[in-house]
Specification:
By secondary structure, the protein is of the alpha/beta class. α3 crosses α4 and α5 (217-226) packs parallel to α9. It is elongated. It starts with a strand and ends with a helix. It has helices spanning 17-31, 46-52, 72-86, 97-110, 217-226, 235-239, 270-276, 293-296, 305-316, and strands at 4-7, 10-11, 14-15, 37-42, 60-64, 90-94, 114-124, 126-133, 138-144, 149-153, 168-171, 203-207, 230-233, 260-264, 281-286, 299-302. It contains 9 helices and 16 strands. Bound molecules: flavin-adenine dinucleotide.
Length: 317
């Protein structure tokens, strides 16, 4: 039996999607061996977060009421103490800015092997972690024979768990050594235009190099407005300076999981697909019937965007 301890994430008073993905990954992993899933909520409004995280597959939620926002030193101390108390087989964290900040320190302190950026987890006697390398062109499997491990999971790879459950909620008292808390959050500054977060959008209209010129972006913006959607893009659009960096989807941009992703004049390069393949519905418009984007699209229109987009705007308006 392998128990799993998954560490949830929140920012500015809201649980991050990866928390709900950690529930899915953690409960799958724990149930493969009949183990329990323990969730940890550290900092912020832990009681409200625990209510939101009362989900199917969760056995116990441990709340640690320490601070408002993520803090490296608090997380390291809290996770280490929880591990020593619960003795889980596996610790799961998000492969996020925060997760990658504290996971290595936790692994070092607990002398655990750390596998980062997991896209698949299997527990068949030993833990097997699937990772992707070289811009998702190569898949590697890592077999962990240490018996126990810390793993960070890639956001957007697991479904979010929504079904309600009835976990126990327990306040976990951890003595935080303040002399070892060497940083604190003093404020937030959004990078780029800062007015939108494409990772939060339900509907994304995404534009690629097929748009040809900067002034043509207005056309795709009109479609986004007609759909009440958010505008995003592939990398060349950002490299050209036509949209800010925070609109870029992909390996070196943001990972998005909207309900609808409309890819307009985007070929579907692996580095782009790495950021949007988790979308529920993918619709592609492209003149090239062999464009790789059609391999992952649920619906495709083979056509010239300069004909199709105005028609769509008219229909939706
Ligand atoms: C390390 C690394 C990281 C990267 N990270 C990212 C990343 O995060 N995000 C990202 O997007 N890319 C990234 N890239 C770049 C990536 O490899 C591709 O070059 C890029 O995604 C291509 O963008 P595109 O699809 O807009 O352009 P193209 O590949 O040039 O595709 C344009 C498409 O538009 C179609 N088209 C042309 N005219 C029309 C028309 N009139 N109507 C309809 N369709 C038309 C064409 O058929 C073509 O399929 C990265 C590359 C590297 C090496």
């Amino acid at each position: 039996m392998s128990d799993v301890l998954a560490i949830t994430e929140h920012r500015r008073g809201e649980l991050r999607d990866v928390s709900f993905e950690l529930v899915t990954a953690g409960s799958d992993l724990a149930s493969q061996s009949g183990g329990d899933l323990h969730l940890a909520v550290i900092g912020g409004d832990v009681d409200a977060f625990a209510e939101e995280l009362a989900l199917d597959g969760v056995d116990t939620i441990h709340t640690v009421a320490e601070g408002d926002e993520f803090n490296h030193d608090v997380y390291v101390q809290a996770v280490t103490a929880l591990y020593e108390e619960l003795d889980p087989t596996y610790v799961l964290m998000g492969n996020t800015v925060n997760g990658l900040d504290y996971a290595p320190a936790v692994a070092e302190q607990l002398d655990l092997p750390l596998v980062t950026d997991a896209v698949g987890l299997e527990n068949e006697g030993a833990l097997t972690v699937t990772r992707e390398m070289y811009a998702s062109k190569v898949e590697s499997t890592v077999e962990v024979d240490a018996g126990t491990a810390a793993v960070t999971i890639r956001p957007g790879e697991w479904d979010v768990t929504e079904a309600a459950g009835e976990p126990a909620v327990e306040a976990f008292d951890v003595e935080i050594d303040d002399s070892r808390v060497r940083s604190r959050v003093t404020g937030f500054e959004e990078v780029g235009s800062g007015d939108v977060d494409i990772a939060d959008a339900d509907v994304l209209v995404s534009v690629g190099r097929g748009i040809e010129e900067e002034e043509n972006i207005e056309l795709v913006q009109e479609l986004a407005d007609a759909l009440d959607a958010t505008l995003s893009s592939s990398r060349p659009i950002v490299d050209n300076g036509w949209l800010p960096k925070d609109r870029q989807v992909g390996q070196s941009g943001k990972v998005v999981t909207p309900k609808v992703y409309l890819a307009i004049g985007i070929s579907g390069a692996v580095q782009h697909v790495a950021g949007m393949k988790g979308a529920e519905n993918i619709i592609a418009i492209n003149t090239d019937p062999d464009a790789p984007i059609f391999d992952i699209a649920d619906y495709g229109i083979v056509g010239d965007l300069f004909d199709v987009v105005p028609e769509l705007i008219e229909q939706f308006e």
